[in-house]
């Protein structure tokens, strides 16, 4: 390191041609890059001096340095860098190349006879404490720790915060702790070599509710049903559900799958951390195969003997697959393959009160506006295309409903079908059935005469077949207040193209078909497929 003492204006480095020795140089002189002083701060008493030494970089650079004082009444400097304290105060001594490169030294002058104030010794940190040493947070929560450093005038740059496991809890530099995941972590606050810690326990978000998707269900012995338990909130940490049955002889449960064991009632409980919901399971004995004359109940079951604890809504009058002729019924209700039920309620009314005003066949509208529907014209069962001997009441009723719903038919709806909606309110059809509909001529014949392999039009009032209606009326008589099947019963079948204002009725006492005016009142009963 090369230091130069300069007197006045000093040449620091140069290449001098010496013609006396005949020596020359061709090396380029480097430019000055920096000036450094050996001291940047000094304290002097009035009258004292202090020599400052300047270093030029690079050492062989060519530079002409000059010295100056910011306040010569406080301190002066000569051309060699000798500083003289003049009076109390503070001045800045600057050494410069005359351009942009310079260095400075701050001079503090104190009165003569006074010792300069020494730089204060740093005050060490004695302790760091936190407002909490043990906290418990729920995942996602935050908490701000406050650190206290003693003594209050201690020297330290800042408080450094850290977490032993940022996967469990994090902390930012203002002391805010964020619970990240279930577990434990230690938060440390450190300042001036001293530290304090807070133990953090993060717990999971607790479940607040458990709800089952089904609260009541009836099963046949041997059947199963899957219950779904929903635990809220969605981000609860432990959503495990425990299942139990109040009577495993009646119903068992495994992971929500309920198995019906034997007749009776059991409560299936889904529990999660003290919360629970219950589904009541009623197990009934497996149903026997249906038979004509069985009582049919509002819960969709049947029995040979009247079960007074249930609500009877009808009597089974035919067994088998009712969709054999009716593809629309088979498509809409593929599981209705057991048979047909006739309602125990007998109603009276007109087929179509506005028939004369309308003056047309319903079938004409159906064939023009719907597709896939059979003709509603029953005829007399002798010619191709006559539908007298086909079980088509479901699709006839569905077609008539479409007719009624069409705005152009608002003045002349088919009353007997429009009334099904009200009937469903007072006597709902069980779930899984076809719902109530008006029987076709063939289905009405099954109610009165039972199965007949020939043309049902040939069942004459002079030789009636009344076996089925007599059986049904004997069953209905066991039901208090239920009327027996009687009079003429409307069907959903129209007669022929020349009888636009007539529809078929069947006589309950003669089994014969009658071509009756649609705007006359007769009895009728709805049926359903199950």
From TrEMBL:
Keywords: Signal. InterPro entries: Big_2 (IPR003343), Invasin/intimin_cell_adhesion (IPR008964), NUP210-like (IPR045197). Residues 1-22 form the signal peptide. The keyword Signal applies. Pfam families: Big_2 (PF02368). The keyword Signal applies. Residues 31-107, 124-201, 206-282 form the BIG2 domain. It comes from the Bacteria. This is Ig-like domain-containing protein.
């Amino acid at each position: 390191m090369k230091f130069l003492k300069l007197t006045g204006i000093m040449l620091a480095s140069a290449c001098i041609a010496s013609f006396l020795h005949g020596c020359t140089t061709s090396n380029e002189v480097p430019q000055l890059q920096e000036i450094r002083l050996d001291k940047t701060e000094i304290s002097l008493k009035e009258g004292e001096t202090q020599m400052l030494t300047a270093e030029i970089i690079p050492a062989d650079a060519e530079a002409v340095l000059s010295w100056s004082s910011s306040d010569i009444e406080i301190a002066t400097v000569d051309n060699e860098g000798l500083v003289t304290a003049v009076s109390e105060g503070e001045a800045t001594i600057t050494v410069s190349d005359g351009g942009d490169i310079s260095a400075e030294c701050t001079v503090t002058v104190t009165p003569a006879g006074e010792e300069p104030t020494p730089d204060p010794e740093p005050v060490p940190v004695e302790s760091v404490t936190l407002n909490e040493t043990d906290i418990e947070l729920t995942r996602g929560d935050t908490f701000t720790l406050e650190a206290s450093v003693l003594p209050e005038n201690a020297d330290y740059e800042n408080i450094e915060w850290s977490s032993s496991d940022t996967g469990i809890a994090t902390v930012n530099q203002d002391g805010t702790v964020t619970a990240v995941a279930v577990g434990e972590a230690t938060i440390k606050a450190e300042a001036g070599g001293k530290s304090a810690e807070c133990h953090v326990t993060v717990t999971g978000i607790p479940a607040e509710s458990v709800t089952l998707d089904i609260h009541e269900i009836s099963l046949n012995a041997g059947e199963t049903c899957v219950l779904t338990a929903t635990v809220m909130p969605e981000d609860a940490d432990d959503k495990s559900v425990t299942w139990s049955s109040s009577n495993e002889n009646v119903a068992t449960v495994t992971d929500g799958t309920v198995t019906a064991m034997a007749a009776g009632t059991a409560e299936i409980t889904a529990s999660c951390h003290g919360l629970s919901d219950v589904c009541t399971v009623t197990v009934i004995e497996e149903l026997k195969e249906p038979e004509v004359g069985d009582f049919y109940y509002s819960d969709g079951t049947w029995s040979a003997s009247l079960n007074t604890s249930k609500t009877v809504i009808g009597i089974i009058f035919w067994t088998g697959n009712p969709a054999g002729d009716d593809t629309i019924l088979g498509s809409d209700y593929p599981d209705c393959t057991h048979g047909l039920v006739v309602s125990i309620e007998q109603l009276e009314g007109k087929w179509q009160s506005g028939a004369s005003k309308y003056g047309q066949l319903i079938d004409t509208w159906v064939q023009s506006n719907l597709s896939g529907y059979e003709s509603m014209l029953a005829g007399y069962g002798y010619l191709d295309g006559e539908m007298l001997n086909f079980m088509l009441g479901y699709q006839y009723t569905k077609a008539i409903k479409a007719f009624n719903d069409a705005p152009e038919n608002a003045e002349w709806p088919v009353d007997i079908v429009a009334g099904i909606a009200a009937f469903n309110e007072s006597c709902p059809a069980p779930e899984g059935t076809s719902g109530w509909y008006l029987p076709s001529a063939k289905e009405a014949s099954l109610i009165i005469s039972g199965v007949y392999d020939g043309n049902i039009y040939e069942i004459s009032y002079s030789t009636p077949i009344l076996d089925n209606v007599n059986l049904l009326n004997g069953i209905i008589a066991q039901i208090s207040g239920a009327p027996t099947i009687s009079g003429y019963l409307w069907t959903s079948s129209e007669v022929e193209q020349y009888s636009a204002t007539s529809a078929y009725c069947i006589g309950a006492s003669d089994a014969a078909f009658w071509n009756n005016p649609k705007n006359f009142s007769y009895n009728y009963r709805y049926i359903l497929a199950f």
